[in-house]
């Protein structure tokens, strides 16, 4: 009788152990990796953060990632519709406030990826201008980026609030804007651009923000990772990753520098991951897929 009870107990323990082993949440329960859709804009830090997220999700966590280049309004709209999962370059509370207000009911903030961001008007260090108000009565052209970017809304408001009736605003891509700035800088010419930090421009040239006493551009911004509502239920590991991700000023600047130094941005980001292996390991700790055990 004791032997029979013992055998039954062993069977039950084996069943419980098997159940416990098979009930652990795994992102790769099927043979095909699950796909995460990340939207991004054509700005340096957005490309860097999105490529970093992609490489960690794919190479460290076993997901398949689809990156899609969009305008900033479309980034928020696609998240709100559920057509995309994550946008890793949301500048809040000021720069992209109009988009957040429009779609907030369908979105959620995952984390602050970078807490030291700033936007404003940027000039070479040698410029005679020191404040946005100094542009008054000058026939300056402020060279900016795409018209729907949050910083362009702020710049148009600055032109109004500071009564810069003789100042014009030009819309270009980020690449075109920085190329024109570099050419003007070489010739020691005056130039005013829409600028933001982090950006490789601050490492390559001696530049500064114009003072903004009316705080049209705000005092300090955060770069958030935001997601479509309900992402936690579908991809809890993805949410955990973004909750852990936060870069210091030095880490962010080196990420953007290495990315912009390579013909293929992914190569520069992968180099950054190798140089910051300890940090990456902390971010993905306990989030890697289960390794197959050799019996």
Automatic annotation (TrEMBL):
A Pfam short name: OpuAC
Entry keyword 4Fe-4S: no
Signal peptide (from-to): 1-20
ABC-type glycine betaine transport system substrate-binding domain segment(s): 35-275
An example molecular function term from Gene Ontology annotations: amine transmembrane transporter activity
Gene Ontology annotations for the cellular component aspect, listed alphabetically: ATP-binding cassette (ABC) transporter complex
Family matches, as CDD domains: PBP2_OpuAC_like
Keywords: Cell membrane, Membrane, Signal, Transport
InterPro entries listed in its UniProt record: ABC_Gly_betaine_transp_sub-bd
Subcellular location: Cell membrane
Transmembrane segments: none
Keyword Signal (UniProt): yes
GO biological process annotation, one example: choline transport
Protein name per its UniProtKB record: Glycine betaine/proline transport system substrate-binding protein
């Amino acid at each position: 009788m004791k032997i029979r009870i013992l055998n039954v107990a062993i069977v039950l323990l084996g069943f419980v152990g098997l159940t416990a082993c098979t009930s652990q949440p795994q992102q790769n329960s099927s043979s095909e990796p699950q796909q995460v859709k990340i939207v991004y804009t054509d700005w340096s830090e957005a490309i860097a953060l999105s490529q970093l997220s992609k490489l960690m999700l794919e190479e460290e966590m076993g997901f398949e990632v689809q990156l899609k280049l969009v305008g900033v309004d479309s980034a928020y709209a696609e998240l709100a519709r559920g057509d995309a999962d994550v946008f890793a370059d949301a500048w809040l509370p000021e720069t992209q406030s109009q988009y957040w207000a429009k779609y907030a009911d369908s979105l959620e903030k995952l984390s602050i990826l970078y807490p030291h961001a700033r936007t404003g008007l940027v000039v070479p260090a040698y410029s005679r201008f020191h404040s946005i108000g100094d542009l008054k009565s000058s026939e300056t052209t402020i060279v900016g980026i795409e018209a729907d970017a949050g910083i362009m809304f702020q710049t148009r408001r600055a032109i109004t609030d500071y009564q810069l009736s003789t100042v014009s605003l030009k819309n270009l891509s980020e690449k075109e804007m920085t190329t024109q700035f570099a050419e003007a800088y070489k010739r020691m010419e005056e130039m005013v651009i829409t600028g933001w930090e982090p950006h490789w421009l601050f490492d390559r040239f001696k530049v500064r923000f114009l003072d903004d006493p009316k705080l049209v551009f705000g005092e300090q911004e955060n770069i958030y990772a935001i997601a479509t509502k309900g992402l936690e239920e579908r991809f809890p590991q993805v949410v955990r990753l973004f909750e852990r991700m936060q870069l210091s000023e030095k880490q962010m600047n080196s990420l953007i520098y290495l990315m912009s130094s390579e013909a293929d941005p992914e190569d520069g980001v992968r180099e950054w991951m190798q140089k910051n292996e300890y940090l990456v390991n902390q971010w993905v700790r306990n989030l890697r897929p289960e390794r197959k055990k050799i019996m």
